[in-house]
Specification:
Oligomer: single chain
Shape: elongated
Distance between the termini: 40 Å
Helix content: 25-40%
Strand content: 15-25%
Number of helices: 7
Mean pLDDT: 91
Radius of gyration: 18 Å
Order of helices and strands: HEEHHEHEHEHEEH
C-alpha cells in the first residue's frame, strides 16, 4: 500500500512559480521557464494553449468590426493576478502592442471561466477548460484563429525521494493527456 502523503499546494502564475523553488517554499513546480534552477531537474511536459474568449454578446458589444485597438481599450479584461502577463503577450502577438484596458482580477481559473461565461470580461482561458462552453456557444473567440501557446516545464528538487518520483510520474501521465505536444 502506498504511504499517505500530505500536500500543501501553492497557486502561482506559471511565469513566476520557479521563484517558489528558488526560495525553498516548494519541492516541485510547473513553470513556463525552461531554465533549470540550482539543485533541481527540469523537463518539458507539453504546451498549454490559451484561447482569448468572451460571450458572443460581449464580442458584439465591444468588437462589432473585429478585434481592434479601440474595442480592446474599452473591453474589460480578465487577469489572474497582477503578475499575469498572458493577456499582454496575446495582445502583443495579435496587434503588436499591449493596450491599457479595464481589468478584473480573478485568481482562480474556475472563477476566471465563470466571469467570462457571465459576460463580465474577455480572458485567456486554457483551451481544454473552455472547450465545453465554446462547443455550447456560451463562449467564442474574440479573435478567431488566434491563440497563445505556453510551453510548460516540470521542475523538482534533485533529491532521492520516492514521493517526488511518484509525483513526477503522475505529472507526466496527466500532462500527456491534458497538454499539447511541443512543436519542433
Amino acid at each position: 500500500a502506498a504511504t499517505p502523503v500530505d500536500f500543501d499546494l501553492r497557486v502561482e502564475d506559471q511565469d513566476h512559480s520557479a521563484a517558489l523553488l528558488r526560495e525553498g517554499t516548494v519541492m516541485a513546480a510547473v513553470s513556463a521557464s525552461a531554465e533549470a534552477i540550482q539543485g533541481c531537474t527540469v523537463e518539458a511536459i507539453g504546451v498549454m494553449r490559451y484561447r482569448a474568449v468572451a460571450t458572443p454578446d460581449f464580442v458584439r458589444r465591444y468588437f462589432p468590426v473585429g478585434t481592434d485597438v479601440d474595442g480592446l481599450s474599452r473591453a474589460p479584461m480578465l487577469t489572474f493576478n497582477r503578475k499575469d502577463a498572458l493577456q499582454g503577450r496575446f495582445l502583443q502577438q495579435l496587434i503588436g502592442r499591449s493596450v491599457p484596458a479595464p481589468t478584473h482580477f480573478a485568481p482562480s481559473t474556475p472563477c476566471f471561466l465563470e466571469m467570462a461565461r457571465r459576460g463580465l470580461a474577455w480572458g485567456m482561458i486554457p483551451e481544454a477548460m473552455a472547450e465545453a462552453a465554446l462547443g455550447r456557444g456560451e463562449l467564442t473567440d474574440i479573435a478567431p484563429g488566434a491563440w497563445l501557446d505556453v510551453p510548460l516545464y516540470w521542475h523538482r528538487w534533485r533529491v532521492s525521494s520516492g514521493v517526488l518520483d511518484q509525483l513526477t510520474r503522475e505529472v507526466r501521465r496527466v500532462a500527456a493527456k491534458a497538454l499539447r505536444v511541443a512543436a519542433g
